[in-house]
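Work through this:
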Amino acid sequence: MISIRSQHLTGAEVAWFAPLCSDDYEYLAVPDNRLKSTFDHTSNILLTADKLGFRNILCPSSYQVGQDTLTFAAGVAPMTRNINLLTAVRCGEMHPPMLGRTIATLDHMLQGRLTVNIISSDMPGETMDARDRYQRSREVIDILKQGWTQDQIDFEGQFYKIKLPTTDPVRPYQQNGGPLLYFGGYSPDGKDLCAEHCDVYLMWPDTMPNLRGHMEDVSSRAEKYGRTLDYGLRVHMIVRETEDEARAHARKLVSKLDEVFGTEIRNRAQDAKTLGVALQAELREHADDEGYAEEHLWTGIGRARSGCGAALVGDPDQILAKIRGYMAMGIRAFIFSGYPHLDECQLFARYVLPQLETVSMPQVQGRIPPTTPPTPLGTGERR
């Protein structure tokens, strides 16, 4: 039995992807200067998704390639109108009280349209036991929540010992605890962290029975903390007028793939050796000769990408049926992407998005009161 916080919803949060990490191609793993991760290119994708009606957009994080996530989000925030920003935060990268103030400031810039993707990867040059990585993230989240809701941070843990008053401004625009926390992880320690502290459990592509198994596991863990969560799926997208056209585009996407370079791309990510990445490799290994692990679920993208490594492939009706099947399981948040990202964003918005009822998860979960304005940013002491 899966307990879902937004069980009553008939709609879904439909999000797109901002390729901050040099992850945009016409042919997978073939660099293209037209699609390079620049502020102009990436912000154009984000602003297009905003205009087309997507409700959120993932701004990922990477040390090896691409742009800084929080800097990018702050730069693009004043240009947006409706879309939420799902901004990836690597726990341990920044001193937690300063991170809390940074997130609160960005939330005010977006007038409550900020969501946060909690990342627990190793830092460059660091190899930490998974249990310790998740413990560090747990401590960071504890400190963030104290800073957002209390006048004093008073915390002592394995990684942080902090006692100090909170600063002005530090309270986020969103009330009731600050921005929603999205989390993806597959180890028992990661799932337990999500169950205790986060709001949306994100999964990478898998067969529907396996997805349901992860949801049931996290749901049972959350019940032990007296909590219920929402669930999300991060998956690539290839939709065309006909299934034959969609499958042809999938074949074209990997037609120039150098397998050696593809392996290099997979291994350069900080999460390359995690359980989640191993499960994506296992999904590819069990796929058929064309790379399909399940009807309309194609694993070819994982040949040259760490993390999310599969796409939904089909015509509009097939894609819509697949999404509705996920929704019937209890998945309420979707993060789609496709190659090239701008083109696929427009195709999905043309063929599928108008047929979906969409929602904003922060509004659904009561983080943004409809009439009561939040306390404005204070002036405080400036240096």
